[in-house]
Amino acid sequence: MQNSADQANEMLPVSPDEEADGRVLADGHWSLKHGDEVYGPYTFEAMENYITEGRVAGHSIIAPTGSDDWTAAKDVAMFAGFFDEEISKVTSSTPSHPQDQRPVYGAKKGQVDRRKRPDTSNFLIITDVKSRHGATLEQSIMSLGAALKVAGNAWVVNCAGTAPGILNQLSKVVSKQDGLFIADATRDRTAWFNFGPETDAKIRRVWRRPV
After folding, report:
1. CATH topology of domain 121-206
2. What would the pLDDT profile of 87-141 be if each residue is shown by its tens digit?
3. Between 20 and 30 A from 141 (CA), which of 5, 14, 135, 159?
4. Where are the domains of the chain?
5. 168: exposed, middle or buried (C-beta count within 10 Å: 0-12, 13-18, 19+)?
6. CB atoms within 10 A of CB 182
């Protein structure tokens, strides 16, 4: 018999009727589409694990649970920092359906062993706070780990985690009118929140990982 945690992560098709009556609506949760089937909802942490394991690729189609805004995972700001050219080479030949994929590990050329991670990373966090949540956000940033405020809206932080993971954590204490930009200086990745589609596209053009 499955426990509740296993049941929460089990991939089950979601019918349009179930979406309509709100039974699967979950704040902060994500769904995946594979063909005509919809799977989920999954927490951010579950999605992070699927991406890390190679079971969700950049071209996998996802949307916030209850939304029809289906987008490639690599084009969703919350998850964009997980994907780069090197990972794409590893996962491009695997299907986007998480149940049909397997982790790709090994030391062969072109492969990335996702099990090897630094214990902590250096982050630059930049905020654009227009609401009254500035003090709460600052407390949350300072609680991440070793942190130093270097400007009115900028912090350098050393802590465990990833840019998308920290973004997910901090976005819970700000409003939809506030912006966040996080750069992982150790892994050379970024994640951002609430800058709009035009700025999203410009960030992707400007911030390029070295080949």
Report:
1. Alpha-Beta Plaits (3.30.70)
2. 444 444 444 455 444 444 444 445 555 555 668 999 999 999 999 999 999 999 9
3. 5
4. 4-100, 121-206
5. buried
6. 26
Global model pTM greater than 0.85: no
How far apart, in whole angstroms, are the C-alpha atoms of residue 124 and residue 167? Answer: 12
Tell how strand 154-159 and strand 146-151 pair up. antiparallel
Q: State the amino acid at position 73 in one-letter form.
A: A
Closest CA to 167 of 197, 209, 146, 195: 195
Ordered strands of the 179-184 beta sheet: 146-151, 154-159, 121-128, 179-184, 189-193
173's CB contacts (< 8 A; 6+ apart) are 133, 136, 137, 140
User: Closest Cα partner for 99 from 9, 18, 5, 7?
Assistant: 9
